[in-house]
Every structure is written in structure tokens, then in C-alpha cells.
Amino acid sequence: FDEFSSLKDRLLDEDFFLVPFVPRSFRTDIRETEDAYIVEAELPGVPKEAIHVTYDEGILSIVVEEDKDITEEKGEYIRRERYRGRNERHFALENVDEEKITASFENGVLRITLPKLKRTPPKNREIVIE
User: Fold this and answer.
1) What contacts 116, CB < 8 A, 6 or more positions away?
2) What is the pLDDT of residues 45-63, one digit of tens each?
3) Burial state string for 30-66 with b = 16 or more CB within 10 A and e = fewer than 16
4) CB under 8 Å to 54, separation ≥6 — which residues?
5) What tens digit of pLDDT does each residue of 106-115 get?
6) Angle 80-65-82 (CA atoms, 0-180°, nearest 5)?
7) Strand (E) positions, the chain?
């Protein structure tokens, strides 16, 4: 019981809440179908305007940048876990038709569809021997 009481005191200690928060990356799933890659990222509470998606030289980048200086309501936080600032993820996805990439954002989930390039099967061609 003494150990529990000591732990409780440490958790409620003022210094505990001053430990700098290290942001975690947002959760992302990537599926591959026959025709495309589908990337889904969980971004609850993030406004669409704070999300930037790019595809460059085989790298899909998702960057979320929220204003750190949000107007605060009166009162002091006892605990603060929601991170505001810059957070990004990068994924290597090749064989993508860059011109046909689409993205949507609904219910806190960003969904990016990256269609694969259509590869034409090689034609059999007889080579003439000289």
C-alpha cells in the first residue's frame, strides 16, 4: 500500500506534468490491391486545411501542421496530451500513376488512393539474325 501511495504522490506531483511531451506519429494503414495502393491515416480533430499531401519521386508525404498558438480558454491545464504543431509521415510507394492520385478526408480519416501504372505485357517479337 505504501508503494501505491508513493506512486500516486509522484503522479500528482507538479513536476510530472512539466515533462515535455514528445509527439507520436499518427496511425496509418497501407493496403495494396491489384490496381492501387490505399493509404488511410487517422487524424481526428485535425482540420482539413492543416493536412498537406505530396507525392514526389516515389515518396508519399503526409504533413500535418496545426497552429501551436491556439487561443486558450480560461484556466490552467492539469494534463495536456493533445499535440499541436508539425507531424509528418513518409512512405515509399513505386509504380504509381501520379496524375491519378486522389485523396479524401471524412470523419477524421484521410484516405489517399494511388493507382498503379498499367504495365503492358511485352510483345513477342522475332529477332532476325543477320
Assistant:
1) 35, 36, 37, 95, 96, 97
2) 899 999 999 999 999 999 9
3) eeeeeebbebebebeebeeebbebeeeeeebebebeb
4) 60, 61, 63
5) 999 999 999 9
6) 15
7) 28-32, 36-42, 51-56, 59-65, 86-92, 102-106, 109-115
